Recover the amino acids of this structure.
């Protein structure tokens, strides 16, 4: 909201091991030309009716609307949805896939961009969300999910965190985070960063298979399509 | 250390009411031409042997050395002192005025710049530190202390915090903070932001009087000189 109003805003991400990281929040408002290359390239795989999960301030929804597509943006943050609407997203809804959609709504493309693959949260929850998304997808339905390989060039600090996760039986790249900004703090939540191999394994048996990875160094957008085994 | 090595670094300041704020840490390395105007103007009041309290990465010490002055930099942060030394501060010491100085060391100018008036911490501790500094000062000794009036154009959020302080019998502008950066966190400590009136009152009876304020909107550098009443 502050950024959209032209103020400077730095996002503070706190991790449950006591680390804090800061990020330039401007990416949430970035126009298409400033997107990461893998996300720009992923746009050619978008078709039909689109669900933009974790739409935030509407960065991706706005671009797709501009291209004439029908987009439903969904975000758990009421303030983000308010900003998305103000910026012109025609159909932005507060909630989750479980609460924000009407019975029978189907989508040809489901977007988890901007590292929103993180919403898979972990192994069990991730499989469950992929199965839920399979029920929301048309026959030709696709998921585009953005993440990066957390093990690629990981710092010593990151490696320790991933090792701790594995000792606890989790996928290495599950980060327990909360986002803070001035007097605001989100609840703590798990964000999954997965290697390509981990994602491939996670998708097995959920109704989805990896059709391709759009790569950019450690970063990628995974294109998932319907699996006949589902 | 990261900034001095050319990395991007954002300082996260956490306040005890759950707020977080971010700051551009580059000011700690800023050359004279990029300093706040009141600090540039304050340099004409520096003379003789100088104590730079809370010298950090040596921003002020380096400039004064360059001008040919003898400067002792003191900081509680061993890493900051390491950076100050690497950047060329000839005499940078880890500790406080109580631990880092040798018996009998005296100074003509004592610097509390870059909001280091904050080291006064509060009413009681502030008076005590001013009395200690009086014992370290020569006859013509001066303190240059930087701060800003916290009540000038304070946000609603800030006003609530100041009111809470006053209900607890503290000066309004005492902020209980800790600084976080990646895996590092300082202990919690009190930082005083004082109006000109509050500082004037605080100095009374400590051996110091306000000789002048060098003003820049809410910001100022106070010039304190020896008080005959001391």
């Amino acid at each position: 909201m502050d950024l959209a109003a032209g103020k400077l805003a730095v996002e503070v991400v706190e991790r449950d091991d006591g680390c804090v990281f800061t990020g330039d929040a401007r990416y949430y408002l970035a126009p298409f030309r400033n997107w990461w290359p893998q996300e720009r390239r992923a746009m050619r795989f978008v078709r039909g009716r689109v669900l933009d999960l974790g739409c935030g301030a509407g960065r991706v929804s706005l671009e797709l609307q501009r291209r004439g597509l029908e987009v439903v943006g969904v975000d758990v943050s009421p303030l983000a949805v308010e900003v998305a609407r103000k910026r012109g997203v025609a159909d932005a809804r507060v909630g989750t896939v479980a609460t924000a959609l009407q019975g029978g709504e189907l989508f040809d493309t489901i977007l988890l961009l901007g590292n929103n693959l993180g919403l898979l949260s972990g192994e069990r929850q991730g499989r469950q969300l992929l199965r839920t998304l399979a029920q929301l997808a048309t026959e030709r339905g696709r998921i585009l999910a953005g993440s990066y390989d957390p093990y690629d060039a990981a710092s010593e600090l990151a490696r320790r965190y991933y090792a701790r996760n594995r000792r606890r039986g989790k996928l290495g790249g599950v980060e327990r985070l909360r986002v803070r900004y001035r007097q605001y703090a989100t609840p703590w939540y798990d964000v999954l960063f997965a290697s390509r191999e981990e994602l491939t394994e996670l998708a097995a048996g959920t109704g989805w298979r990896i059709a391709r990875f759009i790569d950019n160094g450690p970063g990628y957008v995974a294109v998932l399509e319907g699996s006949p085994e589902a």
Summary: The longest strand of chain A covers residues 137-148. Chain A touches chain B at residues 10, 12, 17-22, 157, 180-183, 185 (CB under 8 Å). The CA atoms of residues 97 and 212 of chain A lie 24 Å apart. Chain A has a mean pLDDT of 96.
